[in-house]
What does this fold into?
Amino acid sequence: MSQESSPLKYHRILLKLSGEALAPRKGYGIDADRVRRIASEIQRVHELGVQVAVVVGGGNIWRGADAAAAGMDRATADYAGMLATVMNSLAMQDAMEKLGMVTRVQTAIDMPPVAEPFIRRRAVRHLEKGRVVILAAGSGNPFFTTDTAAALRAVELNAQVLLKATKVDGVYDDDPMRNPEARKFDELSYMRALTMELKVMDSTALSLCKDNHLPIVVFDLDEAGALEALVRGGKYGTLVHDMEEPEWSANR
It folds into this structure.
């Protein structure tokens, strides 16, 4: 999938990883092999000179919404989820640094022995110096998802695109795991994604991207080389942006 002669389309990206992306195929926790593979995909784009910020979820360890549904106070459950994202971020940091990348973990909740606090100017400076910045603890606020945190950080850091890595190769009009007739969208407008209630990101995150004209690409990180192809301008996954008229072909 490598396209050595292709120029870069994006020079600063925010990559949103779900916690489940780090988990074993079946079960919870952190799968070291999967973390290393994701780190190697990030390394490929980092070596091209792309500035990379990463937001990691925590669903492989803790799901605040599930705990709240079981009777736990929602704010408390969400704070516990923020701590899970820190654990995942440290695992990602370790894997990336073992590949030779220089990284910084910044957290929305102060924990100085573990990581830096999130300071926008400092994060931008790290990116300019070629460091990968891993942004943990969501936005630091309960009741907001890590998707919303990813959108917020992408806007704050002037990322050119928000790349959301998922288990499927784009956005569908139904769950493709259950419905083999589900139709994949090659591109969508923000409004269509919102009105159809498609599972791109939550509505707060989508609205934030819409208001700031930040394109989103939903793609399958398990497809080797997809991340590199995207930063070079390849058409993978589903593009969500301002345009109403389709630009991408129906088949990749």
Notes: The first strand starts at residue 12 and ends at 17. The chain has eight helices and eleven strands. Residues 5 and 64 are 45 Å apart (CA to CA). Helices lie at 32-46, 64-69, 74-98, 120-128, 146-156, 190-195, 203-211, 226-231.
